[in-house]
Amino acid sequence: MEHRVDDLIRIFKECFEGTYQTRLVRGDFEPLYRPAQPGQALHEIVFAHGFFSSALHEISHWLIAGPQRRLLEDFGYWYEPDGRTAAQQALFERVEIKPQATEWILSEAAGYRFRVSTDNLNGEPTDNSEFKRAVYQQVCHYCEEGLPARTDIFRRALADFYKTPSDLCVKHFSLANLR
User: Fold this and answer.
1) Parallel, antiparallel, or unpaired for β 22-26 and 32-34?
2) Residue 48: CA atoms inside 13 Å, Cβ hemisphere, count?
3) When comparing pLDDT for 7 and 92, which is higher?
4) What is the pTM of this model?
5) Scanning 11, 73, 104, 153, which has the fewest C-beta atoms within 10 Å of its C-beta?
6) At what angle do helices 129-145 and 86-110 cross, to 10 degrees?
């Protein structure tokens, strides 16, 4: 099945625009979460360059963010751009475990390939095998303990639209296939 961002935008709208006053927006450049400003009705999750994977990743950050964080631009998190040192990269990877595990689960529900992103092409070379293991372990945890409510709502909507298995099961994920 073709993976069109317009479908993702519509599915997100159906799931969350009314209840969380949030919409998914195709952006031209870097991704950004913008809370609604005075006179603006909706918060916006802006994903980069119209990429399907960027949309899933930014949605994952939104799904993890609590109510207070959703009132802050980019959820109040720091972002160190590409070119990070090994120490900066290690910190980046620690905070990216849950978002990337969530993105993997959403990708699986959409029947879309998932690739771990270390987002540091011009930085110090590092071994990301431990990061991949941590993302996989978080996916396993979600499979065993269940997903947060909003994440489960969206995962089920994706599975329904893309006609993928509706159950969240660890057998659908493999560390060996993780790129």
Assistant:
1) unpaired
2) 7
3) 7
4) 0.93
5) 73
6) 40
Structure tokens at 31: 């991704």
Is 33 strand, coil or helix? Answer: strand
Q: CA 167 to CA 156: how far, in whole Å?
A: 8
b/e 160-172 (16+ beta carbons within 10 angstroms → b): ebbebeeebeeee
- Domain residue spans in the chain? 5-76, 86-172
Q: From CA 20, how far away is CA 167, in angstroms rounded?
A: 25
> Which residue is it, tokens 């996989």?
136
Region of 121 please: left (phi>0), alpha (psi -120 to 50) or beta.
alpha
The predicted-structure confidence for 17-45, as pLDDT tens digits, reads as follows 999 999 999 998 889 999 999 999 999 99
Q: Is 30 helix (H, G, I), strand (E, B) or coil?
A: coil
What is the CA 157 to chain-centroid distance, rounded?
Answer: 15
Tell me the pLDDT tens digit for each residue of 150-176.
Answer: 999 999 999 999 999 999 999 999 998
Structure tokens given for 57: 């990743």
